[in-house]
UniProtKB/TrEMBL annotation:
This is Large ribosomal subunit protein uL29. Residues 63-85 are annotated as: Disordered. The keyword Acyltransferase does not apply. InterPro entries: Ribosomal_protein_uL29, Ribosomal_uL29, Ribosomal_uL29_sf. Signal peptide: none annotated. One of its GO terms (cellular component) is cytosolic large ribosomal subunit. Residues 4-31 form a coiled coil. It comes from Thiorhodovibrio frisius. The lineage of its organism: Bacteria, Pseudomonadati, Pseudomonadota, Gammaproteobacteria, Chromatiales.
Amino acid sequence: MKANEFRQQSADNLQRQLLDLRKEQFNLRMQQGTGQLVRPSRMREVRRDIARVKTIMTEMLANTTSSHSAPAASGSGLSAAGSSK
């Protein structure tokens, strides 16, 4: 599935899609372990689709939090003098 197709879905649908993809990934690993895997390329497709869904979910989360809160200050809050051992 293309990233644009995932972006058009709601957060709930993306959660369901992620769950379905993880189940499919598990089943493909079991098939590979027992020597029954017919399409090894499908494992790569599923892995990349999982990454796409997770990336889009993170983008959606970042967009909602950035519109509701002020940007975070950069740096760790420690001065150079405070980092000595």
